[in-house]
């Protein structure tokens, strides 16, 4: 989806047309947690027939919003990248009631959830803001990057992350949070950190949906790293 020159008016109109169909919007939202799903599952999520789902998926692929992984006779659809996820989250921001209004969302989903494959919600925003304040993260023209002090702090907290050189080379991005209207950590760096938190048991996936459940130990360790929930 990324285009260094930026979208022109025709591309922007095409993006709007892709989202104007509720079935296509439902398919995209079903994939915003970073999973890859078969067409049949996406058809059920959208409430349409298999043939109709196939036509919608073809349009989303041609529009650059989806990618597909072929495994034998099976095809699994996913968002093309986390730029698409960030764009969908931003598009979901309510336009009524003023910028500072907070949308009504189930408390567990607002507290912590996945946005593509990185941590979002109140906890995601708290992590990003605390790590910027502590100089674990730095913002530059390329987005967000982890500093040496941050890599050391995360390792000492017990997160199994890639080797330091590779970790410091990962780029992050400030992703505008749908519920909090502030930034959480996205991009490859956000994906790596969130994956490490899941592996360490600091976060657990809910049985259904995008909500993440922080464990008591996870909250304790994140508090030591500066990120606290009110």
Give an account of the 3D structure.
The protein is an alpha+beta fold and 230 residues long. It has 2 domains: 9-80, Winged helix-like DNA-binding domain superfamily/Winged helix DNA-binding domain (Arc Repressor Mutant, subunit A, Orthogonal Bundle), CATH 1.10.10; 105-224, no CATH class. Helix content is 46%, strand content 19%. The chain is built from 11 helices and 11 strands. Strands 6-7-8-9 form a 4-stranded antiparallel sheet. It has a 3-stranded antiparallel sheet with strand order 1-3-2. A hairpin with a 6-residue loop joins strand 10 (203-205) and strand 11. The protein is globular, with a radius of gyration of 18 Å.
Report the sheet-strand fraction. 15-25%
Q: Which percent bin holds the helix content?
A: 40-55%
Overall number of structural domains: 2
Count of beta strands: 11
The overall pLDDT average reads 87
Structural category:
alpha+beta
Cα-atom radius of gyration: 18 Å
Which consecutive residue ranges, at least 5 long each, have pLDDT under 50? 96-100
Figure out the total of helices: 11
Widest sheet: strand order? 6-7-8-9
In short:
The chain is of the alpha+beta class and 230 residues long.
Give the helix/strand layout.
Layout: H1 9-19, H2 22-30, E1 37-38, H3 39-46, H4 50-62, E2 66-71, E3 74-79, H5 82-91, H6 107-111, E4 113-115, E5 118-120, H7 121-133, E6 137-140, E7 143-146, H8 148-156, H9 164-169, E8 171-176, E9 183-186, H10 187-199, E10 203-205, E11 212-214, H11 216-224
Antiparallel strand pairs: 1-3, 2-3, 4-5, 6-7, 7-8, 8-9, 10-11
Domain HTH arsR-type: 4-99
Protein name: Helix-turn-helix transcriptional regulator
InterPro entries: ArsR-like_HTH, HTH_ArsR_DNA-bd_dom, HTH_Metal-responsive_Reg, WH-like_DNA-bd_sf, WH_DNA-bd_sf
């Amino acid at each position: 989806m990324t285009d260094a020159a930026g979208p022109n008016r025709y591309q922007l109109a095409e993006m709007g047309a892709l989202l104007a169909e509720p079935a296509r919007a439902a398919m995209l939202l079903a994939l915003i947690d970073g999973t890859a799903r078969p067409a049949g599952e996406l058809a059920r999520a959208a409430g349409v027939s298999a043939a109709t789902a196939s036509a919608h998926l073809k349009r989303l692929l041609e529009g650059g919003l989806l990618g597909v992984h072929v495994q034998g006779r099976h095809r699994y659809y996913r968002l093309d990248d986390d730029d698409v996820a960030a764009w969908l989250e931003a598009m979901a921001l309510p336009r009524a009631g003023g910028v500072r209004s907070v949308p009504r969302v189930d408390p567990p989903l607002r507290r912590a959830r996945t946005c593509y494959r990185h941590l979002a919600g109140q906890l995601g925003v708290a992590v990003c803001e605390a790590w910027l304040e502590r100089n674990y993260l730095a913002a530059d023209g390329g987005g967000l990057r982890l500093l040496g002090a941050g890599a050391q702090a995360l390792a000492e907290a017990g997160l199994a992350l890639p080797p330091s050189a590779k970790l410091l080379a990962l780029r992050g991005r400030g992703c505008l949070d749908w519920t909090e209207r502030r930034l959480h950590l996205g991009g490859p760096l956000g994906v790596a950190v969130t994956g490490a938190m899941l592996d360490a048991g600091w976060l657990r996936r809910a049985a259904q949906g995008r909500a993440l459940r922080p464990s008591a130990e996870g909250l304790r360790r994140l508090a030591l790293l500066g990120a606290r929930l009110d």
